[in-house]
Design a protein that fits this description.
The protein contains three helices and five strands, in the order H-H-H-E-E-E-E-E. The protein is an alpha+beta fold. The N and C termini lie far apart (68 Å). The mean pLDDT is 89.
């Protein structure tokens, strides 16, 4: 088997492994191996082929790490609807005392606080955040 074929077989194995694991980092290393195959096709020595594969793999991995795909999104779980399904639900607040109230929600009593810019009036409110056993609500 030729050198370029070995590089491409290695890249193919990494692409399959990436499909099984779901990480893009193996794909970046596979791109480096593919470039090693191109270097072999151009007739470079084994050391230069390895250097090209390593350099391209490292650069591709660094670019991926700096992109939005390489880092998990930093979201506040107390405000994220994907984490807490109570976000966006409505509660009826009968009255307020110093910006706080107690309401029946999902069969239990909850402490409720006004969110920023909310007015302390009796009525329906939307849950915008959950902090422990407190619901933070807004008029909107």
């Amino acid at each position: 088997m030729s050198d370029w074929m070995n590089w491409l077989v290695g890249a193919g194995i990494l692409v399959i492994a990436e499909l099984l694991t779901g990480t893009f980092y193996l794909l970046m290393i596979a791109i480096g191996l593919a470039f090693g195959g191109v270097a072999a096709l151009l007739g470079m020595s084994g050391a230069l082929q390895t250097l090209v594969a390593a350099a391209v793999g490292l650069v591709a991995t660094a670019i991926l790490h700096r992109s939005r795909f390489g880092r998990p999104a930093k979201t506040d779980a107390t405000r994220d609807r994907n984490v807490n399904l109570d976000i966006g639900a409505r509660v009826a607040v009968p009255g307020w005392q110093d910006g706080r109230a107690r309401v029946m929600y999902r069969g239990a009593l909850w402490d409720v606080e006004l969110g920023p810019g909310a007015l302390p009036e009796a009525g329906d409110y939307r849950i915008v955040e959950v902090r422990g056993n407190r619901l933070i609500v807004s008029n909107s």
